[in-house]
Amino acid sequence: MRALVIDDSRAMRRIVTGILTGFGYEVRDAEHGRAALDVLDEGWLPDLATIDWNMPVMDGLQFVSVVRANPAWRAMTMMMVTSESEHTQIVRALAAGAHEYVIKPFTADAIRDKLALLGLLPQEVAL
User: 38: helix, coil or strand?
Assistant: First the structure.
């Protein structure tokens, strides 16, 4: 399975990439939404995208909206992984087309549980 990790923090990209790689994902990353769209435009379509909200150039909510508008990318599952914790922000992200929402700081177990809920946890990963 493939994942695209989108976050402007290099450290956070490394953390999320490490977690997903540990679960058996092939991972690419991007420092903002526009760079992530470039990856998709190259034809590299992930099963999962983890998306920060607050990024320069193109934020996470804009990215989700653009992906949802493109029929070729609609199968991609999108999970917000962000420090935005207000209920209205969560509702906005889910209404825009995100499937799940993880609030920073998080644990590997929290990511694993969300992946299991989404049906994106490889079978060999124990719950």
Answer: helix
For 63-87, how does the pLDDT look when each residue is reduced to its tens digit (9 = 90+)? 999 999 999 998 999 999 988 888 8
Nearest to 50 by CA among 63, 34, 69: 63
**d(Cα 47, Cα 119) in Å, to the nearest integer?**
11
Indicate the helix (H) or strand (E) that contains 74. none
- The whole-model pTM stands at 0.93
pLDDT in tens, 83-116: 888 889 889 999 999 999 999 999 999 999 999 9
Which helix or strand (DSSP H or E) is residue 78 part of?
Answer: strand 77-82
What is 2-78+89-118's CATH number, 3.10.450.700, 3.20.20.70, 3.40.50.2300, 3.40.50.2000? 3.40.50.2300
Taken in order 12, 15, 17, 19, the sign of the CA dihedral is: negative
